[in-house]
Amino acid sequence: MEQFLVSARKYRPATFATVVGQESITKTLKNSIATKHLGQAYLFCGPRGVGKTTCARIFAKTINCTNLTADGEACNECNSCKSFNENASLNITELDAASNNSVDDIRSLIDSVRIPPQSGDYSVYIIDEVHMLSSQAFNAFLKTLEEPPRYAIFILATTEKHKILPTILSRCQIFDFNRIKVEDIAKHIAEVAQKENITIEAEAAGVIAEKANGGLRDALSIFDQIVSFSGTNITYQNVIDNLNLLDYEYFFKMTDYFLTSDYVSALLAFDQILNKGFDERNFLVGLCSHFRDLLVSKDSKTLQLLEVSEKAKQKYAEQAAKCQIPFLFAALDLASKFDEKYKESNNKRLHVELALLQLCNILKKKLA
To answer: 113-143 pLDDT, tens per residue?
Structure first.
């Protein structure tokens, strides 16, 4: 049986051009290589799964490439690139600080720094999760980081920049990686699906992208999970069923009931949601998010804050046009207050039903 390789590894970017959602950072790194303005230490920080370690590896490979392409990418053909691609490069050392965080680990690293590269111009040291180093290890590392040999370049990666000592930060060029936009993740998921001969609905890719919360690695892991569930045809319904997500169509229907003060339909729809096994609290949180999304859809300036698929954006725009801003403010305030008091309630179902009744009564109060 052929061994399965997860999508996050199989489609890991190999060049700056294939990195998703970090254009400003990849452009800066490419320019620094082209102009030979290389720093002695870099700090890549940001959420998980956004490309920090990937960019560090691409950068390390590119600075030792002996035959750069016209657009500043590694050629993947020279001996240095080939050895890197085969995980046999002696110029690149990776250290996981989560499990190698002692003074002795750093001393071993410092000893290896004294040895110049046997081929290529630079020895690159990538330290992942660098915030996990102990204070003693940081102090032992400080002098080497401040005055390394000319051939040594350090790339530190972390998800928790605030835990890095200021003395370390002052010696690094700092690159803050962004959460990747929903549309960029959805586009990448669609491209991966095409390469794997899998059909995927645009709305399904959008839901996967939203669920990933800005992390491409998480999105690809979810994609692999959905493929195992759905096979070669991924639909929106497949995704929400497998991830046990509440279909946002319920929130659109609920809002229509609130606008028409139809409390009977609202209570019946809520009963359907509970019968499908969804939690009352999750429904209440989702309702708050829905009102927020409708509010930001009312103005073109805030529309960029809406991180959903294009099809969903159209639905939000259509329903937002039917909602007055005072109604949305009142609904968001009411739903938030019921969410705050949810834990104190002894009868969770009744608590949420009271929220629905009051939401249905907002416009009636204004008309009275």
So the answer is: 888 887 778 888 888 888 888 888 888 888 8
φ/ψ of 23, rounded to 5, equals: -60, -40
Let me know: does 105 contact 121? Beta carbons within 8 Å: no
Does one domain contain both 281 and 199? Answer: no
- Distance of alpha carbon 358 from the chain centroid: 36
The tally of domains found in the chain comes to 3
CATH number at residue 171: 3.40.50.300
| 23 and 66 share one domain | yes
More confidently predicted of 145 and 188: 188
> Given 176, 211, 232, which residue is the final one in a domain?
176
Give the span between the Cα atoms of 75 and 78, in whole angstroms: 7
Same domain, 63 and 166: yes
For every residue of 75-126, DSSP letters joined together read -S-SHHHHHHHTT--SSEEEEETTT--SHHHHHHHHHHHTSPPSSSS-EEEE
**What confidence tens digit (pLDDT) does each residue in 52-84 have?**
888 998 888 888 888 888 888 888 888 888 888
Residue count of the chain, please give it: 368
Q: Using alpha carbons, list the distances in angstroms from residue 47 to 53, 168, 356, 361.
A: 12, 20, 36, 42
